[in-house]
């Protein structure tokens, strides 16, 4: 069964460093999402992406964040200058079909980011 | 106040019990999503609803749009059902708002 994959599974970085989290969505999917979950807290929406542009973003997704689909298969989240509070589990998800929102999203296993 | 509230926050049940998890929301939505998060962190989509009721195996989800309320039921619960169950709503075309989750533990 096709699945969403994410790399790395864990990343430790120093405050102020740039990190790139990578996702490979399911191949025929059209909509892509990033979410984060700070330890012990609820999942939070970061950004949605369709047709090579951001569809919607949350208040969390400030200028330090960017997303890209560089090659038609990968979907990346870049954090330019990490802060301690960026430590969280980051989930990627993808969805098929052009009619939102009733199509199931498929989630990746997550990348656990720790900023020291 | 959270826009999406779940109750209970924690639930312990004996194997075989019928379980109900509730979700109430205060915003206009186009659909509601029930998700399951395993102890390792992985998230699995269970149901998406915009009206009525859906059933999959031992899981049943209902939604009442007028009352802004949804329930997730688990019949004949099993220890492998132990997980965090999350309600998320689509508000607007693309924006997801998540509830805080209900932590379920089913004892053998």
Shape of chain A: globular
Q: Bin the helical content of chain B.
A: under 10%
Number of helices of chain A: 0
Structural class of chain B: mainly beta
Poorly predicted runs of chain A = none
Question: In summary, what is this structure?
Answer:
Chain A is mostly beta strands and 116 residues long.
Describe the structure.
The complex is a heterodimer of chains A (116) and B (108). Chain A is mainly beta. Chain A has strands at residues 5-7, 10-13, 19-24, 31-37, 43-50, 53-57, 65-68, 75-79, 88-95, 106-107, 111-115. In chain A, strands 2, 4, 5, 6, 9, 10 and 11 form a seven-stranded mixed β-sheet that branches. A four-stranded antiparallel β-sheet of chain A has the order 1-3-8-7, with no helix packed on it. In chain A, a hairpin with a 6-residue loop joins strand 7 and strand 8. Chain B has 108 residues and is mostly beta strands. Helices cover 0% and strands 61% of the residues of chain B. Chain B contains no helices and eleven strands. Chain B has strands spanning 4-7, 10-14, 19-25, 31-37, 43-49, 52-56, 59-64, 69-74, 83-91, 95-98, 102-107. In chain B, the strands form two sheets. In chain B, strands 2, 4, 5, 9, 10 and 11 form a six-stranded mixed β-sheet that branches. Chain B has a five-stranded antiparallel β-sheet with strand order 1-3-8-7-6, with no helix packed on it. Chain B is globular and about 40 Å long. The model of chain B has no long low-confidence stretch (mean pLDDT 91). Classes of the chains: A mainly beta (116), B mainly beta (108). The interface between A and B is medium-sized, with 28 and 25 residues.
